[in-house]
Each structure stands twice: as structure tokens, then as C-alpha cells.
Amino acid sequence: MVNLPDYDDLPPAPDGGRLGWHLFGPDDDLGLINLLTAERAAAAAGLVRRGETFPLDAPLGTFSPPLNSARGNPRHHVIAQPGGIGFDDVWDNLYPQAGSQWDSLAHIGYSREIYYNAATAEDILTKGRNTIGHWAAHGIVGRGVLLDMPAAMRALGRPYDPGTTAEFDPEVLETAREIAGVAYEPGDILLLHTGFADWYTRQPFEVRRALPRDLKAPGLAHSEDVCRYLWNSHAAAVASDTFAVEAWPADTSPSAAPFGFIHQMLIGSFGMALGELWHLSDLAADCAQTGVYVGMLVSSPTPAPGGISAAPNAVLVK
Amino acid sequence: MVNLPDYDDLPPAPDGGRLGWHLFGPDDDLGLINLLTAERAAAAAGLVRRGETFPLDAPLGTFSPPLNSARGNPRHHVIAQPGGIGFDDVWDNLYPQAGSQWDSLAHIGYSREIYYNAATAEDILTKGRNTIGHWAAHGIVGRGVLLDMPAAMRALGRPYDPGTTAEFDPEVLETAREIAGVAYEPGDILLLHTGFADWYTRQPFEVRRALPRDLKAPGLAHSEDVCRYLWNSHAAAVASDTFAVEAWPADTSPSAAPFGFIHQMLIGSFGMALGELWHLSDLAADCAQTGVYVGMLVSSPTPAPGGISAAPNAVLVK
Amino acid sequence: MVNLPDYDDLPPAPDGGRLGWHLFGPDDDLGLINLLTAERAAAAAGLVRRGETFPLDAPLGTFSPPLNSARGNPRHHVIAQPGGIGFDDVWDNLYPQAGSQWDSLAHIGYSREIYYNAATAEDILTKGRNTIGHWAAHGIVGRGVLLDMPAAMRALGRPYDPGTTAEFDPEVLETAREIAGVAYEPGDILLLHTGFADWYTRQPFEVRRALPRDLKAPGLAHSEDVCRYLWNSHAAAVASDTFAVEAWPADTSPSAAPFGFIHQMLIGSFGMALGELWHLSDLAADCAQTGVYVGMLVSSPTPAPGGISAAPNAVLVK
Amino acid sequence: MVNLPDYDDLPPAPDGGRLGWHLFGPDDDLGLINLLTAERAAAAAGLVRRGETFPLDAPLGTFSPPLNSARGNPRHHVIAQPGGIGFDDVWDNLYPQAGSQWDSLAHIGYSREIYYNAATAEDILTKGRNTIGHWAAHGIVGRGVLLDMPAAMRALGRPYDPGTTAEFDPEVLETAREIAGVAYEPGDILLLHTGFADWYTRQPFEVRRALPRDLKAPGLAHSEDVCRYLWNSHAAAVASDTFAVEAWPADTSPSAAPFGFIHQMLIGSFGMALGELWHLSDLAADCAQTGVYVGMLVSSPTPAPGGISAAPNAVLVK
User: Which residues of D touch C314 (CB under 8 A)?
Assistant: First the structure.
């Protein structure tokens, strides 16, 4: 098993920050999902007490109109079988990134030129480097840790509205970890509950329709401190109930890289799995009620060869 | 927890066989997935030893050209984001039933007129009765039991070819159970490994292309005895590596109902989840090698409101 | 042949303006396309002199990113046939209204409650009333008349920019007609050349990408005078090189009806065919050079049963 | 204007037959559509007498289930606009070759290695050589000549069934031409009415469903004589109401080339436009009744950049 260095012991990255490449070999396409070993899967199974199962994918079409207006909604056709013996069905216009999803390591690069582990755009398109099929073949089973961000904000006495921008710095993340009552373990899958998705589904159509023109959401702060904190947690993945994990708007311009849009650090440098638009509110309510913030997380990403993204198809079993 | 009656104590069904409706209430849309209680999920977690994870979904596009030629292949577009910061992707023509899948209880009726629990076609299309979203919201976590059918056929001294028709009667199923070394428990998810999918992927294109015109596969025998056997096992689900679970060809004509095409009994009368085209060969090899045929099965079906079918997104953790 | 009344002799419409319904019978689904009789088609053929042919559809994907961001681009897959004998192809996400198109009489109603000739939304969805198939079965062959709006604006000494809002009132339309040197004849297909599409295709990607957030275009003024003018011209159709024929932005709120958004009058009351995003610049240049502004227009709309819109598939032959 | 040589004066083609390449220059992508000059378009307009218009495209979805089972049916979604002002619509799974269509010169090569005018598969896929956009930009306007094949077979005293195989040799074609009462002119668009499509639409579902497994249709004979006849007619295009123009089954194996499957000669060597599954029965009835077999044909193929095929969007005006 690999012992990961601390963030400040990583080599410097060309455009700023530190570089997490090559810790699992030059040809690795999994990134920090490598931390999800059989031993850790077995340990995660040991966390199951009640057997209560929390599905973490929002139903298809939940985020409608789509938050990124270039995508459109999935289209579903039910087809009556000739002869009347039953039904078949088919989907069109299914953008994994329009709903609950994993970003693969092919989604965003460290820079416009280079992706995780030095893969090029060409490597992604022609060799499937970093694409989602690698994770699907490995399986994603580990410990899930819910971080309840509204509770952490409250504990710190900070005002909070899940429908607008808020930046979570390491202090807030630490507070959430303390509320969860856990110490981080390598390979953890952090579940960043912000309340955004729950807020979204309660909005009337007109509010949801206007959102794409001025997207805002709470999330990770745009700072090296947050990157250092996450790397040093040695989490394999961070999934949230927002569309970006990090606070939005971000600054995606090259001049703000790599911390203006920390996808570039988390995915492109660290090889960290980012989950977006997950359904976390039912789980968060149960955690608050039971005081148990951990469980066995099982995700079976759609086995899409060459896929840039995929549904997580995740449950947490407590 | 419901205690299910024996098959012969069920009321007679209108067109033959016995009727498993209404055991979980008149409005139930889950069928035998109701057997997957929290207690059983917790017990399944207790089966995990090594933490070895077996993904059970075949990659999208594995069965190409499609076994049912009306469906076509899924189409994948990778889209470079304007400004060069990364990629997005989208799927069209995605027929869940063209690959690894669960049939929902809306897929096939007990008869042409009526579906599980007395739902009509209209109930399915307008109210979503029996559709896949119900299972996705419940989650599917339980004990998976691999039944190694080629091994059972060998043990019985019967010739066997996974690329053609073979009918598994209760004797073969019992032999497979004995090889697995287990007694059935209510809510089991039986994994019927026939070797078909593995055989398929080793065929050249021309053989695969000709298959849809004369489909053949091993599977459950078309008999009331097999139905009785499965009901009395109190399994929640049966998944196989073929496209039909039951032997093919079946006789889908009304005059052969309900045992000519036992989908009508298993789905339409029992409310049993049928899984098809699952990837079971790696798991079967591990079972044969380790002598351990059970594990924790976690499936997160695509949360498709109104869906007739869905990817199982399943893993077995041993 | 029907002799149409003058606008002011039409009965009043319930929410303002005049009502052009029922002039071709209570069950008519064609509207003013009824004016395109065989006699007029023959007369149009008589206009052909040089045989020069001007295709009036922009290539698929011309307007990208889509002007209405809910639509997305058409997706094209080329499929190599097994055995290497050639290629096949398939299109997904093809929104007729994202490119050159006819709006059918089912696209926009006179009001939110009622469509042309008293059809309801239910009539459209279940009986195909007013949908595009009716025009496709009739065929659209008649006299095309190019109205060169930039030239008319210049002639009137008004400033003009095809990339922003400008309202064409009857005076400008009359000026354009005089430049064309024609008297209107019943059944004319007016081709409103504004220069918008030509301007659009010369813009860099970033300008085109920003457009959907603040759409502007020249077009017909939002007034009863314009409606009266067009009705009294007894044109069958008006097609332009903008996305709306009328000036944009319009006021689509119920309180501004029916002249805030004159689609409601032109389509919903008059039954007039509106063509949008047509390719008119090559034709306009030829008209200016030759002084001949008329020709034989032939359009074969995609024969889409139940279609709301369709590609015009139009040429003008001079 | 090019004066085309006779067939026997063309150079020999590498695998048999004669080669029609390079008559319009080495970079030509239009083939015999080059014969459709402005002069010929003007002459075609001069044929219009009554102004009667015959749409020649069958409605989308006419050939269902698809004759080539790999394709599936087009899927149409009507979308109610938020706020209730009207409807939008979108198509998925639209295979031009599943309905009325032109085959572009990129559809089938002279051989597996080389397409019309020496284009390679790479030229087609990356440079758009021979693809449908070239014809759409040129426009297709010329003289249409209906050849009534059932009438010709009757005149020759040969038995005929439009639902099965029949080979039209030059004698039958000549007979049809004589019935039409015309001499061929360069650039003619021959409309080969066989009665197949009309027969098809009268079959019950079960017959249509079984067809793809044993496709048969009348059409051009598989012979060099037919190729010579067509070339020497100097037609620009041949369109029929069958799925292949030539009799089916053809022999597409390399050993039967180039006359076993004369697509390879007509498209790959001659650069001739082939139209398939056109709606010709209404036109044929009118021709028989009026004795007039010619008219002005106007086709506006879908302007699909890189398209392999396209709807013809054709009418004949008489």
C-alpha cells in the first residue's frame, strides 16, 4: 500500500501548487481511487450496523431545466412491444454531468495542456486515458464520511444560505469533521452536504429556470489551504450536493489557475474523484439524528468506455 | 417481516400457475425486493471477508451488434468545452435492455392484460406503477449467491455448451446450490452463471452478427417445477449472464402461457427481479477457486422515473 | 379560389386584433398555405428565366451554440458498415427550430388557450391538428419575393445594424416592396432579408456564445399596422433570416397580447407560415445585382407526422 | 457543358466495368449532379403546365419496423414551452437511410478501398469528400421522368409482383421509356416506379416485421448491360420506391464486384445519385392517367455537412 507524502512534500506543479502525479505509476488512470484497497473495502463493510441503505443518486431529470443550459434534459421513450407482451425503453440526450455524477480524471486538466498524470487530450480521446471505465472496472467501495456544512457554519456562528455562494475554508471543514466525530483515514470518501440540492428542488420553476444565467453555490474555498487540507486528509474522493463541489462562481481563466478553479488542482493534479449533485439530504438528516456520520459507501459508476463522467450509482449503508 | 407462503399455498392464477400478488399490500410496486430489509442488508455486510469487489455490469456496448436488433448500440459523444478547459459527454440511443440490466416489474406482465399486483399498462405509463424508480429509491442490498451452472451440469454428467439452448430444471439448480454449499435464505439474490456472456465475447464479429436471427441460450427450464423451486427459495431476484434468464427460445405465444415464457410467472406473478446480461465470469472463477459462493451484493439501479429497465450498477463484495 | 376579406373586415378576435379563422373551413389545418394553388404554382414556374437555383436552408449546425440555449446542437454519427463496403449515418438531438425552419401552425397559439382555427393543445398532441405534415403533403410552391430590408432602411435614411433590434413598420416594408418593383399577389412567399444570419456567421465564437443571454434582432414591428399590412398583402408566408421574423425582444407576456409578440397574430390568428433562420444573403445579393426580386420558390418541409416545425428544404429558382 | 463519352469509351475500371471518374475534374464531389446546369433547370421549369405538385418523400416513420433492422425508428419529442405559449420539438435516432433518401457519393465505394473520384474513406471522414452537403449547396433541379415498371412488365407480358425480386434489364427499361413517350436528355432524373413502397404500406405489421430477415424487392438487374444503359442515358440520378434501386438480394461479396451489387458501379464509378424509398405511387397514377410522364423535379437535400445520406425533400411539379 502506498504511503502518500504530505502536500508540502509534493513536487511543485508548473503553474503553481503541488503535483500529485505518478505516485501510483506513470501509466496509472485511477488516481486516488487506488487508495480504495480490498482491506479498506472490508473495513468499510465492518461499519454497517443497522443495514439502513441511503441511495445517493438523484432521480434522472431532477435538475431541470439543466443547470448548464447547453445540456438539455434526458429524453425517455417507452416502447410497447409488438404483440402486447410488455414494454421496452430507451434514453436519449443523457448527459451524466446534468445529474448526480462522478467527474472522471479526463473531465478537467491541471491546465489547458495537460491532464492528471501527464495525459494529453489526445491520450483521453484515443486511448481512453483517465476515463470513467477505469474506475468502473476497479469498483468504488470504502468508508463514507458525511461532513455537514450547514451544521459547521452554524457551530461557527456564520450566516449561511445554501442557495448562494459560500466558501468553506479549512476551519469550516475541520468543524464539520469534529461534528462527525471522526479522524480521517486514507481512502475516505468525503460527502460534503451543503443543502444546495435540497434547496434547489424546493424552488419554483421560474427560479430554477433563471439559475443558469447566474449560477451560485456554496462549496470549497478557492485556496491552496483547502487543497492542502484535502490532500493531507488522504481522501480518495469528495462528493457534494452541488454542481461543482467548490464554491461558485469560480474563476476559470488561465490567469487565476490553479486555485481560481480548484478542479484543476483536485482532479488535474491530485487525481481526486469529485462527485457532484449527489443526493445527500436524507443521509445528512439521519446522521444528525443518530450521531453516526460514517458508513460503507458503494458506488458502481456506469461502465462507460471512454466516458468523461458517469452516474455514481452510489449507496451508503449504515 | 412478511412470512411468504409456499408456492402450492398461493391462490391459483387466472391462466395457470399460482399468483404471488398482494403479499406486500395492494399498492406495492416493489415485489420481492421487499424482502431486502435492513436486517438482511446488515447480515450481508457481515459476509464480507477479503473486501474483494466484483463489478457485475458489462461495459456499455459489450453486446454489439445488439442481441435484439431493434435496439442498436449506445452512441457516445465527447464534447470539448469551449475554451479548452476539458470535456463533457452525452449518450444517445441508450437501451438499458441492450446490456447489463434489471427488468422492472413493468417490463412483462403475467398476461397481455395485467402486470404484477394487478397493474394495467395504463397504470405503468401514467402512474409509474412497477417501474424502476421504486427499486432505485429502496436500494438493493442483500446476500448474493453464485450458482455455477456449468459446474452443476458437469457434476450431473450432462453435456453443456453455453452458446446454445440448455434447460436448467430443479435438479440442476439443486446441484448448483449444493456446489455453492449454502441453504437458501429469504431475500437471496441468485446469480445464475451460465457462461453465455463469456462465450459471446469470445466470438468473432460475424458470429455475433448472425446471433439475433436465431437466438439461443441456456437458462431456467420452462416449467411450473422451476417456478415452484424459485418461489420456495424465497429469493428476491435472479440475475444471469444471458439475455433472458430462462432458456431460449421461449414460447411467448398466449397459448403457451404462463410457463412457455416464465418471465410471465417470475415477473408478472411473483414480482421477482430478473437481471440479465450481467458480468458473472470473474466472480464465478473466484468462487470456484476459493470455495466461497456468497457475498454482499449492492446494486444501485439507475434512478429512472417511469423506467421499464435499468442498469443494475451492481458489485459483489466478498 | 377563396377571395380573402380585408383585415378590417375580419371579425374581432377575443383578446384584440382580428381573427382569420375558418376562411378555409372549420377543419382546415393549412391556413394561408391554401393560397398556394396549382394555378399559382404554374405561374411561379413561369418566372424562371436563367434557371439559377438558390438553396435557402443554412447547413445544419450553422447556429452554434444554439440561439435558444435549451436546444443544443444536432449530433451526427457516421457508422462504418461491417465488412467495409461503405458508411451509414444517424442524427440525434435534431431540433428543427435550431436552424432554418418553418414554424407550423401548432407552434404558437393565438393565446395560451387556443391555436389557429380553434385547435386546442390536445388537438395538436393527439390529432395532429395544424402540424407540419399537412404542409408537407400539400407541397409549398409559389412566387417568392425578396424584400431587402437593409436597402429599404438605407433608402429611408434610417440607421441600421443587422446585429441588433430594429422594427420594420409598414413604411419600411412598402419601401422594400418598391425596391423589389412588384405588386403583391395572393399567395406570395415574402422573403424578409435583414442581414442578421450573415452578420451572425461572421461573429467570433465568444460573441455567438454570449448571444442567447441577450437576444436581439431586426424584424417586423410589434403593431397592428404591421399585421394589417401583411394580411392585406395576402401573402401565404413570410420567411426571414432571423430567428423570429419579428423584431426581438418581443413581449410574450399575456398582458401584451396579441401585438407584443405578433407570432400570436400571424400564426395563431392568420394561419400564416413563418420561416426562420433562412439563408437569404446570396439570393439578396443576386437580386440587388440583377434587379429581379422574384422567382419560383419550392419548399418541401420534412414530412414529419405531428411535427411542430420542420426544415423548409427550400430553393428559389430564378 | 461537359459532353460525356459513351460507356464503352470510358477507361476500364480496376476490378471490372468502366470508370466514370474525373470527367468533372479531380476534386469534384458532385458527380453526375454536375449535369444539372442552370440551363437545364430553366428548361425543366418550362415543363410545368398544370402546377400540380407531387411530394416525393414518404412521411417519417413510414417504413416501420425499419427495413434494415440495425437502424430503428426515428423518435420524436414534443416539448411544451414553459409558460404555455406553444410547443417545440426534437428528433433522435434519425437515420436518413431508413426512409426516403439520397445516397451520397460517400455511401458506397467502387470497391472497399476507393470511392467516387478516387476519394478514400479518410477523405470522406476528415475532408467531407463526396458527402451530401455538396449536393445541398448546388441544389437539384431538373427534368424528372417517370418510368412505370409494372406497366412495362405488363407490356412485355412478364409476370410481376412488387413484393418480391424482379430484375429490370435494358429491354424493360426501354419499354418503360417508350411508355413514357420521351427520349432521354442529359441530366434527367429517372424515377423508377416499381410499386414496392405502395405494396409495403398495405402489408400488415407481422409481414412488415418479418421482411428484414429476407429482404426482396424488384429493381435494376445486376449486369453490365444495365450499367451501360444508364450511363448512356446520361441521367444524373435514378430514384426508386425501393430500398436499393437495384433488385434485391444483391451479391455484395468482393468476388461478385462490380456487377453483383451495382451500387458500386452507379455510385462508386459513375458518381450517379441514387434515391431510395421515394413516394412515387401518386405520381405514377397521375402519369398513367394524363399520359404525361415528365415534370420539373426540385429536391433540396438536407444540408448536412459530412452527411452520408439525406432526405431528398423532393417534389415533382407538372
Answer: 300
- Cβ proximity of D96 and D105 under 8 Å: no
What is the end-to-end Cα distance of chain D in Å, rounded?
26
- Interface residue C204 vs chain B (CB under 8 A): no
Quickly list H helices, chain D.
38-45, 121-127, 132-138, 149-155, 170-180, 196-201, 205-210, 224-233, 263, 281-290
What span, in angstroms and rounded, lies between the C-alpha atoms of A141 and D211? 49
Is residue D234 within 8 Å of residue D267, measured between CB atoms? no
Q: pLDDT under 70 in chain A at which residues?
A: 1-2
Q: Which CATH architecture has domain C7-317?
A: 3-Layer(bba) Sandwich (3.50)
Take residue A298 and report the three cell numbers written for it. Answer: 458503494
Q: Chain D: nearest CA to B99, how far in angstroms?
A: 16
Query: Rounded to 10 degrees, what is the CA torsion of D233, D236, D242, D243?
Result: 130
Helices (H) and strands (E) in chain A, counts: 10, 13
Contact at 8 Å (CB) between D133 and D303?
yes
Extract the residue ranges of chain C whose pLDDT is less than 70. Answer: 1-2
Hunting for cell 432526405 — which residue is that?
Answer: D311
CA dihedral in degrees (A42, A46, A51, A55; nearest 10)? -50
Distance CA B208, CA B210 (A): 5
What is the pTM for the complete model shown? 0.95
C-alpha span between D141 and C55 (Å, rounded): 11
Q: Please give the full DSSP string across D153-208, using - where no structure is assigned.
A: HHHTT----TTS-EEE-HHHHHHHHHHHT----TT-EEEEE-SHHHHHHTS-HHHH
Q: Give tens-digit pLDDT for D1-52.
A: 568 999 999 999 999 999 999 999 999 999 999 999 999 999 999 999 999 9
| Domain edges within chain B | 7-317
Please list, in sequence order, all residues whose beta carbon lies within 8 angstroms of the beta carbon of residue C254, skipping any fewer than 6 positions away: C111, C112
In this complex, the chains that touch B, judged by 3 or more CB pairs closer than 8 A, are A, C, D
How does pLDDT run across B31-47, given as a tens digit for each residue?
Answer: 999 999 999 999 999 99
**Cα–Cα distance, A1 to B240 (Å, whole number):** 35
Contact D76, C93 (CB under 8 A): no
B112 touches chain C (CB under 8 A): no
Residue B317 contacts residue B298 (beta carbons within 8 Å): yes
Nearest to A205 among D75, D77, D82 (CB): D82
Which residue pairs from B19-27 have beta carbons closer than 8 angstroms and sit at least 24 positions apart in sequence?
Answer: B19/B110, B19/B269, B20/B231, B20/B269, B20/B270, B20/B271, B21/B116, B21/B117, B21/B118, B21/B269, B21/B271, B22/B117, B22/B118, B24/B271, B26/B117, B26/B118, B27/B117
pLDDT tens for A63-103 read 999 999 888 899 999 999 877 789 999 999 999 999 999 99
Query: Which residue from D239, D220, D228 is spatially nearest to D301, judged by alpha carbons?
Result: D239
ipTM: 0.97
Q: Is A71 on the interface with C (CB under 8 A)?
A: yes
Compute how many other C-beta atoms are within 10 angstroms of the C-beta atom of residue A10: 19
Q: Distance between CA A302 and CA B76 in Å, rounded?
A: 13
